[in-house]
DNA sequence: CGGCTACTTGGCTATTTTGCCAAGTATGAA
DNA sequence: TTCATACTTGGCAAAATAGCCAAGTAGCCG
């Protein structure tokens, strides 16, 4: 096994995973999985300053997770990869398993 | 759509995603996907201080991603959820798409 | 043109994360 | 018991993230 290649691959993956590693960004991603949204819609959903949301979006865009399209005054974002929905499902499998484990501990 | 529920769900997901959002932790996860490893093997693989690796492992364990088993002097870790392999595949789909996009920009 | 809305960017502070060293625990061997 | 190995934990300093405000850009309408 090539340790250097493994390291590089992990670094690349980390860039994508980090771009999702925040509650607000996961909310954005989930909303976009349902269809495109403009920044003000996402801002209302998240309940933070628009500048904050805009920076989250810029980060997600920079790693290729989402794509913007300007129409009139609004900028609409959409997921650039439908495979993201699968990723969310994988995460949920783990969170459910985690919840079950906590149940066992508590019960 | 219940905004509060969405917020909670995203917070839960973020806990899991954050536990993967680091190159070393992704290396660990990839290694464990191939089978259990003890801490010193992982330390050699990653090339950091053992205390650092141990803290990464503690974090991953705390969110239920991995499970330890002590045998003699060693502690062996394994993935607690095989679905993690799927998650890695999802991430790779995105990184490949990202790489393709960069290609287009460069070319 | 001026003013309005939608959004982005700069800059700053507060918080979180990371990684090393040092010190502690646990197990096995002599 | 003493020593060595494997690992964890505490603590600290450096680095990365997050979020707000203020200021800037861009498109529409009068």
Core attributes:
107 residues, globular, homodimer, 66% helix, Arc Repressor Mutant, subunit A, alpha+beta, DNA-binding
Descriptive account of the structure:
The structure is a homodimer of 107-residue chains. By secondary structure, the first copy, chain A, is of the alpha+beta class. Chain A has one domain: Winged helix-like DNA-binding domain superfamily/Winged helix DNA-binding domain (Arc Repressor Mutant, subunit A, Orthogonal Bundle). Chain A has 5 helices and 3 strands, in the order ααβααββα. A 3-stranded antiparallel beta sheet of chain A has the order 1-3-2. In chain A, strand 2 and strand 3 form a beta hairpin. The termini of chain A are far apart. Chain B binds a DNA duplex (30 and 30 nucleotides) through helix 4.
According to CATH, what is the class of chain A?
Mainly Alpha
Helix amount of chain A: 55-70%
How many structural domains are formed by the residues of chain A? 1
Within CATH, the superfamily of chain A carries the name: Winged helix-like DNA-binding domain superfamily/Winged helix DNA-binding domain
Distance between the termini of chain A: 43 Å
Strand order of the largest sheet of chain A: 1-3-2
Name the average pLDDT of chain A. 91
Which word captures the global form of chain A? globular
**What oligomeric state do these chains adopt?**
homodimer
- Kindly name the structural category of chain A: alpha+beta
Order of helices and strands of chain A: HHEHHEEH
CATH architecture of chain A: Orthogonal Bundle
CA gyration radius of chain A, whole angstroms: 17 Å
Task: Work out the largest interface and the residue count of each chain.
Answer: A-B, 43 and 43 residues
Give the beta-strand count of chain A.
3
Report the total helices of chain A. Answer: 5
Q: How would a textbook summarize the main sheet of chain A?
A: 3 strands, antiparallel
């Amino acid at each position: 096994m090539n340790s250097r290649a493994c390291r590089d691959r992990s670094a690349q993956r980390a860039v994508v995973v980090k771009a999702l590693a925040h509650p607000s960004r996961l909310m954005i991603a989930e909303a976009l999985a349902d269809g495109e949204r403009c920044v003000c819609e996402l801002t209302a959903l998240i309940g933070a300053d628009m500048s904050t949301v805009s920076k989250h979006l810029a980060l997600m865009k920079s790693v290729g997770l989402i794509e913007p399209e300007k129409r009139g005054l609004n900028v609409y974002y959409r997921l650039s990869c439908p495979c993201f929905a699968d990723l969310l499902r994988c995460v949920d499998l783990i969170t459910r398993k985690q919840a079950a484990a906590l149940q066992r501990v508590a019960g």
